[in-house]
User: Fold this.
Amino acid sequence: MATTTTHASVADRAQPPMLVAGPVAWMRANLFSSVWSSLVTLALAYFLIKFTVGLIDWAFLKSVWTVPMDPATGKLNPDACRQAKGEGACWAVIWDKYRFILFGRYPYEEHWRAAIVLVLFLGLFVVSAMRRFWRPVLALIWVAVLVAIFTLMWGGVFGLRYVAQDEWGGLPITLILSTFGLACAFPIAVLVALGRRATNLPAVKLICVIYIEVIRGVPMISLLFMASVMFPLFMPVGLNPDKLLRAQIAIILFAAVYLAEVIRGGLQALPKGQYEAADALGLSYWKKMGLIILPQALRLVIPPLVNTFIGFFKDTSLVLIIGIFDLLTSGKVAVTDPIWQAFSTEVYIMLGLIYFCFCFSMARYSQSLEREFSKSVRR
Assistant:
């Protein structure tokens, strides 16, 4: 009897066979469940393997990483890249132009300042992502980093050479426009979203509706053009903001509209009982919104909010219309060099990887926030 019980307990602890659970079972159920499923899986696997092999062959095996210096011109000689005849990538263009791509027309000998600005931005993003810093001290950190960034970019103090904004460019410009544009647009968006739902304040609601519909009804390029050309006409005599500030204002006004609609969707998604419960506690309007309604509404719309952030981070490339050299524009200008015009693909791949790293980081962070904030509502 004891022997029978022992054999039964061992059988209960035994792992299921591979055809019932595990990778093989998953592939059998999802990839090879039928004849058509198997054919589609094999066809896709063939094209994927062929593409991967070709990409590795072009990007690594047959690629050209360095080229010699031409003693006559003092520039790199891309003959080795031309001899590859497109069968391999020419990464030498990246080594020759990466500083111009990253920093644009910023003075070459002052690139160290722009590099520190990039480090400050990355540090600011990391600190802002940590929940233990989600306190009033975070606002002081943002102000301190903002002052440090513009001090480094402008110069003119502490022995730093003055650099006019017309010489700024590259990745610092992209981060300045997107980071501070979205940071300033978000509180405006919250107020506009609340104003559009303010049924007891019809004048405020009307103003918010007109603002949203007008700004949302025009493309961002036209708004940037109007900010560059028409905005100075409304300024007092002698006050003429530079084009970077004008572009920043246009981006803030444009982004605030789309963020406001996303936030309004979160406000409308909350059950009416949440509003009634907040009123039952006797809270004032702003305490009710700040402590109960907005935290829940923002938690519901994390995915569309981050999607909007990602979209506007990429849309900063439109500032080319008013002559600002962002990251994408610097890459375009870099390949206008006659000796590198045939190798623009490698430059655009580098630009795509930079944009992908920032956008993918935002997407992954939003997913972690969703998981963390949804713990309290899981059942």
About this structure: The domain at 75-106+163-377 is CATH 1.10.3720.10 (MetI-like fold). The mean pLDDT is 87. The chain has 16 helices and four strands.
